[in-house]
Amino acid sequence: MTRTALGAPATPIPTGRSQRSSAVSVLLSHWTGSGTVPSLTLYPHQWSWDSAFIAIGLRRLSPYRAQRELETLCGAQWGDGRIPHIVFNPAVPPGAYFPGPAFWRSGQAGAAAGAPAGIDTSGIVQPPVHALAAWLVHESDPELSRRRGFLARLYPRLAAWHGYLADHRDLGGQGLAAVVHPWESGMDNSPCWDGPLARVEPAPTGSFRRADLTHGAAADRPTDEDYGRYVGLAARYRDQHYRDTAASHPFAVEDPAFNAFLAVSEHALASIAQSLGRSPVPHRARAGALTEALVARLWDPQSGQFLCRDLVPDALVAERSVSGLLPLAVPGLPDPVVRALLDTLSGPHFDLGAGSTGLVPSYDLLGGAHDASRYWRGPAWFNVNWTLERGLRQYGARAAADRLAGAILTTATASGFAEYVDARTGQALGSRDFGWTAAMALDVLARS
């Protein structure tokens, strides 16, 4: 029997049919009838990029439910095109999650931006994985998709979503979308945000309640000071009525992963357009322009990876995050960039394939801010590793991709589908029975 890092007997790893059964059980238990919650305890509403990744795995179980997942999320889209990062379930008690509807006040503060009437949402966004998810869901059952008009109904919403990012979030004026809150990156607590966040006035102590600590260990979550800055920054954006180009932003960052997902999804949107008899040319052109801007704005040859750009001083952030490796998923990168990314991925900073898990950590193993257990400051995440596996396969590193796919499946099931894990030991961290962890395992299993 294998043993954990603490010496206690490890739970036997399920194999084959039992792996699938375990992952399916998580997704079925999290299904609300129209969408999937990431966690029954910690995250009891619908999250934007969670739902995209969940749909990718859910298509292996039920293409219909995967379609409904994305339709429900896009049904809360704002008039300006943004897809909010949380769609709140009115059946969940108000105190179950903070910040909740009473904080965001989307119907009032977001009225000018076209927040939907009768649906409570947040006012910020998350990485645009949705068009990629929609295309993969369509491919899993094209007949059902065409019969339901899935792509025909989703295409204008996805095009408007990408249009919002191009028209409202190019705060640097050079063709990339900026995030105006760490939560928008999806990698909430990355050390990349420490410098930009230092400019943000924290919300007063006692003015908010941390529901995340009810279901997670404090040592694995953001500090109170960082969380206070998150809340203060979100309140500022809300009080500016969620305006983008017409507002000032103490936090404005061009994030490699966010823009990589946008480029990948533009390629997917081109495929969707073509399948509907529309021209794919505008989307391919946009994907190409995004790729060129990524390289021109965020590529750092000395680091051998992409870096975040802080738009306030207009300078690259000297921190190595896994965000800077995720552009490997983008088609058409220059050969020297691909070679350098592969070298960095397997080098000492990220050490692909090392440790007992074989997973890639979320932050530089040699970085001064590395923390093996704290949220996005070192642990490995399954959606990130799934994306890297696609990138490796795309650029011909098939052996490494196969090993990473195996690591995703083995560690996901062994950890009880943990939200995230210690990248070296596999120790389960955060919430258990996490939605996208089960979804990524189900997708990998279907391809193995």
TrEMBL record:
The keyword Hydrolase applies. InterPro entries: 6-hairpin_glycosidase_sf, 6hp_glycosidase-like_sf, Glycoside_hydrolase_63, MGH1-like_GH. Pfam families: MGH1-like_GH. Coiled coil: none annotated. GO terms for biological process: oligosaccharide metabolic process; protein N-linked glycosylation. Residues 43-437 form the Mannosylglycerate hydrolase MGH1-like glycoside hydrolase domain. Keywords: Glycosidase, Hydrolase. One of its GO terms (molecular function) is Glc3Man9GlcNAc2 oligosaccharide glucosidase activity. Belongs to the glycosyl hydrolase 63 family. This is Mannosylglycerate hydrolase MGH1-like glycoside hydrolase domain-containing protein. It comes from Streptomyces sulfonofaciens.
